[in-house]
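Reviewers of the previous submission asked for a worked example of the structure-prediction workflow described in the proposal, so we include one complete record here. The input consisted solely of the amino acid sequence. No template or homolog information was supplied to the procedure at any stage.
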Amino acid sequence: MRANLLFILIVLPSFVWGADRDALKKPVEFFAEEITLSVDDSSATIEGVYRFRNRTSKQGEYPVVFPFHVDSASTYPDLIEAATLGPNARPIQVRRNEDRGAAILRVPLMPDTITSWRLRYKQRISGRSARYILTSTQAWGQPLDEATYCIIVPAEFENVKVWPEQDSMAFVGDKVEYWAHEKSFMPDKDMLVTWTLK
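From that input alone, the workflow returned the following structure tokens.
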């Protein structure tokens, strides 16, 4: 792992589900995500939906360190929000850690259940690119069953290049959306958009 913590999700090993882990090698699985990265010439807004599968009979909070891409052209996010989704949706407390360029969350998991949760953040950018870290999926030791990525840019942006490479695109009002759908996906690069201006 890179020392500057440029990865998306790393589960803290200190979380204790108890001595009985239901004889499962991986009691919690991160198996799907949907990421939308929307940019203009001065900011990037990211909204992610993540799906965790609790394969145990235990209820608890799963601690997650969520780092952000922070460099000379991308600031630590001004806004960070998180919540579970579904009928019993509730906010997830976010603890900011600007020194590490990360946030710390505790995602509530019910026994033998899939939990969907959302995180949204916005950061200022000063260059002609925006990045969202995908490669830390490798830390989970297994590919995502499915993943959907959407990059949204103003229609006036030129020479737009995206990764993951789009399998479709759409013009929506004054925006262009680039969509990529992946199966059994283990990313070896980060989500990235670059552009030039007229």
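The chain is about 0% helix and 55% strand. We consider this example representative of the routine output the project will generate in years two and three.
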